[in-house]
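Could you help me review a protein record that somebody else here produced? This is what I was given.
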Amino acid sequence: MLPLDCGLAFDTARDAEFFVALPPRPAVFLIEPREAAAEPYLLRTADLRRRAERLLLPAEAPSKRLNLRSFAAGVRYRLTGSAFEQSLAFYQHARQMFPRRYRDLARLRRPVLMKVNLANEYPRCYVIRRILADNAFYFGPFHSRRGAEAFAGEFLNFFKVRRCQIKIRRDPEFPGCIYSEMKMCLAPCFAGCSKEEYNAEVTRLVTTLATSGAALEEELEREREAASEALDYERASAVHKRLEKLAGVLRGLPGLPRQVDELNAVVLQPAAEDGAVAVFGVRGGFIADPLVLRFGELASQPRSVEEILRENLSAQSRAPETPGDARQMNEQRGEHLSLLARWFYSKPRTGEIFFPQATRHGLDWPYRRIIRACSRILAPPLVLEPDAPRPEPPKV
């Protein structure tokens, strides 16, 4: 948990010294009450000093502005280097102090996911906003429900999995639907396929989602090569068109959605300290507390930055164990996914994200790219004078 590691007592007789001591920096802060029975006031701000002055300076009568001068006994705060860190710190403290209303305080919306309900006898794929303890396959998070449904509608055209919501009874006299008429569904409703055939199609769907489309691309490429070797050029051309269509659908897939319990990533953010980068590990959809790389201190250490990253990321190779039952764990996972999606789909987005990459020895982190990204985050922004000429692009 990201602690509120700084604090000041508030005395109305010496409020000028109090405000001068508060840094004008982004922060998450807590106004502690004078009375023990009162609830504290948790806030986040882009300027701690200015926000505290608005809340704690004497009110101008008459005024409808909230004033906590007679309420406050002190302020505890944490300086934050990015909106991502601020959202995570605010969520953690709101969840701890206000368990009944922390979602409203943090403005959390449930993440948008695609679900394959594997517990059903004849599973289907659809868009949902909640993770349940039902051993289903979840894929996401997406930016919006509309975007997820648009992607699912195009993606499911490559599979003959049912899209209806009826209870399957395998009745040969059932008339079926338009998908079965168009040969876009195996039609288990009127026993158009066996249970084993339908399960094999669902397995293809889940495997393709788990690999972000790579499994289906490899399958179609093998089918195209086999048709070419058999001199069946018409079939090879048809498969090639399917490959091109699949590539167009996958281009519409954002970079974040993954199999939820396998969503591992590294998020780099500016730290509150100068010359430092905060490295947030994401394991199974859960966001871990950051590793702060202080490059001014690391220059004098015998270990390299890559060694420090390897040691830390390998220690966080698994999702954290959260106390409570599976329902509580999935609720918390969904909240972390919401925070991650809020940052990833924000415009403009501060910081960078990296996912494990396939190597000869299995999945591993792109350490060199992560280190280069740290240098980009630490680089000062380019500010041009109004009349200064823009730099010319380098000649290649």
